[in-house]
Amino acid sequence: MNVCRELNQIYDLLLDRYGPQYWWPGKTRDEIIIGAILTQNTNWKNVEKAIDNLKSENLLSLHSIEHSSLDLISKCIRSSGYYNQKAKRLKSIARYFNQYGYQVFIEKSITNFRSELLSINGIGPETADSILLYAFDKPTFVIDAYTKRIFHRLDFLPRSPSYDDVQRFYMNNIQKDVKLFNEYHALIVRHAKECCQKIPQCSNCVLLNSCKFKKKIV
DNA sequence: AGCCAGGACTGAG
DNA sequence: CTCAGTCATGGC
Hints:
The protein is mostly helical. The chain has helices spanning about 1-20, 30-40, 45-55, 60-65, 70-75, 85-95, 100-105, 110-120, 125-135, 145-155, 165-175, 180-195, 200, 210-215. It is globular and about 55 Å long.
């Protein structure tokens, strides 16, 4: 299929330009899960400070989070914004994962795992998919505002597509490969931050300058 | 000085 | 189901 080839070409252009991103920027599963909550609608720089604070209070694990006070947590994560909400969300997700060892979750089917995550208050589709892909290597494509913006500009998507529609678009048109899903989303974020938000750099945009995709820009 | 970040929930129409 | 309002700090 044509779209299929184009999505692979875009991936190659981004990979050539930026190189592999080796996401998620966090080592342990707990740290990835915690970061996924903290980064909701928030600059990653602010999240890093929050993570540093959690680490110095020994709160960078789901077990310590579950047994810590809401007050201390929200104090640590203040810089990430929405700190009252996010402190509660961290508690909820800690309670969920602490029910069993990680092996139980590793063995879960992606469908069941995803719907369980979505039933937790404060976990929407993007956070769920980030956790599935980056903490558990489950093959699901993470959609965010950048993805919608960039691919709308390239004329692959309508103006305000639903999360599930966009996700189906990728899942139906590229190989179901964890490594590819991982790098693709990371590259989109890298490209958005580095190029599409800053006017000068945008004139060197690897996507807009490719003859293949140039004609699609209005 | 605004504007906006790697969202999600709620209530209203 | 679509959509504004809400949550909130820090960087540019």
